[in-house]
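Request: Could I get any protein with tokenized structure?
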Amino acid sequence: MKTYHFLSRMLPAQKRYAMKFFIVALPMMLLALGELVLFVLASKGRIKVSFEPLIIFILIFLNVTAIAVIYLFNKLVSPLRLAKEALDNYVISREIPELPIGYPDEAGQLLSHIQATLTQMDELLSEKSDMIDLLSHDMRSPVGRIISISSLIKTEAENKDLYADYITNECKGLIRMLENILLMLKEESNSINVTNVNLNQLIQETVSFFDFAAAEKSLEMKIDIDESVYINVQPELFTQAVRNIIGNAIKFSPDGKSIFISSTQDMEKISLSIQDEGLGFKPRDIQKIFDRFTTAGKKGTHGETSTGLGLYLSKKIVEKHGGKLLAESEGINKGASFTIVLYRLVIKKSKGKASPPSKKESAAQKKVGMTPKIDIDAPPKMKIIRSYR
């Protein structure tokens, strides 16, 4: 790339790749022309030189010149070789290259387009891989519950209707999840279609999904969320993220404990917090627990297994909505708290006008195609306790 870089600094060759070849070839062509003129003059006797040594000299010089031109031309195609190597490496190992993209000529534009295309392709493949992981991860829990409930039906004849309803709901949830994930896998764009969703209703439905699991541990689910709060999300996808977090809270909670689900809001954001009294984690492991197939995973209090994917997928889903997922714990056996932060617009009650979004919010909302929800005067909070003790 040194020859290509050197010639790219010359003004005539900055924007034209072919001009670089011309600059390399021009001195060689002029020298060859000079030799031809010298040969003609010598052959006509206008220059008194020995004819045979002149021919030998000219042939040697032409060969050297040709070799030099070929060598420099070979150096000039280094951007094309670099592009080929980048594509080959990505096909073999999915390694994202770091190509030089600051050159304005055709070869430089090619390198820039290859860099952008491979980066975008890798992001798309990662998104689809995440959806497949989400599919495999979130099928385990409902299928496991269906197996458990089916086993109970054999021993508890008086509750067959209730258990049948549980199985029906689990199967319906599985079908909805499959439909939505397969739909997202077919989409070429990373964007998602969002709609206004009542947060309290979404949480109530999500918590009811875990009725059977919470009852097995005699847990108390305490919900404290304004009924007026609306969020802009893709309902099924966002619900999967919340399910993963609530499912973890149940999995890692000892029998008889409580799980607290609450929300706060201001003019810029809505925060959804899910706090448990369970196993917790070391503060230094905060980043590690969000890793894909994290090594920080552990078994639940009833021996429930962990795939190491739940929090990773939840974080990806929240970020896809322009938000962020935060984690906090004071240490082992001291519980854990997970907070989802989403950005949105609200009404200024004193003037009745919508407050403008910040640049950061606008960018995040534009990315996922958000239509802001405007909240009007909110009714008082409702605190709901679902007890399974």
